[in-house]
Design brief:
Blueprint: H1 2-26, H2 28-34, H3 42-47, H4 52-88, H5 95-124, H6 128-142
Helix pairs in contact: 4-5, 5-6
C-alpha cells in the first residue's frame, strides 16, 4: 500500500514539474516581449513576425505617435464635455449645438487622419506581405462602417 501511495505522489510531482517546465519554455518569448520597452506592442511583433530591426522601427514610430494621440484624445474629451453640457439643458437644436457637432466631426476626422497616417507608416516598416495583412486588419478593426453598432437586418 505504501509503495502505491509513494508511486502516486512521485507521479504527481513529476507531472507538475513537467507542466511547469513546458509552461516556462513555451511562454519565454512572450514573457521577454512583455518585459521589453514597449510591451503594448509585443503582440504586433508576434502576430506579424517582425524582426528585431522592424520591431525597433515600429516602436520608434509608436513613441512619436503616442504623445500626439494622447493630446488629440484630451482635446476630444474636453470638447465632448462641452457638448454634453450644451445637450444637458437643451430641448431643441440650437446654433451652439450645431456648431459643437460640426467641431466634433472635424476633430474625429482629424483623429482618424492621424491614425491612418500612422497605420500606413507602421505597415511600411514591415515586410510587404505582413504590412498588407496589418493594414487589412487595422481597416477592419478601426474603420468600422457601422460605427461599431450592432447590425440588425
Amino acid at each position: 500500500m505504501k509503495k502505491g501511495v509513494l508511486i502516486l505522489v512521485l507521479g504527481l510531482v513529476a507531472a507538475v514539474a513537467a507542466y511547469g517546465c513546458i509552461y516556462f519554455v513555451c511562454t519565454s518569448s512572450a514573457r521577454t516581449l512583455q518585459q521589453g520597452d514597449t510591451p503594448e506592442l509585443a503582440w504586433l511583433k508576434e502576430e506579424f513576425n517582425l524582426s528585431d530591426a522592424d520591431f525597433k522601427r515600429v516602436s520608434e514610430l509608436h513613441a512619436v505617435y503616442l504623445p500626439q494621440c494622447r493630446d488629440k484624445c484630451r482635446e476630444i474629451d474636453a470638447h465632448n464635455v462641452k457638448l454634453q453640457t450644451l445637450l444637458s439643458g437643451a430641448t431643441n437644436m440650437t446654433p451652439e449645438i450645431a456648431a459643437a457637432l460640426t467641431e466634433s466631426a472635424r476633430m474625429r476626422s482629424e483623429c482618424q487622419t492621424m491614425m491612418l497616417r500612422h497605420f500606413f507608416q507602421v505597415s511600411q516598416m514591415m515586410p510587404p506581405e505582413q504590412g498588407r495583412r496589418y493594414l487589412s486588419w487595422v481597416k477592419a478593426k478601426v474603420f468600422l462602417p457601422d460605427f461599431g453598432m450592432p447590425n440588425e437586418k
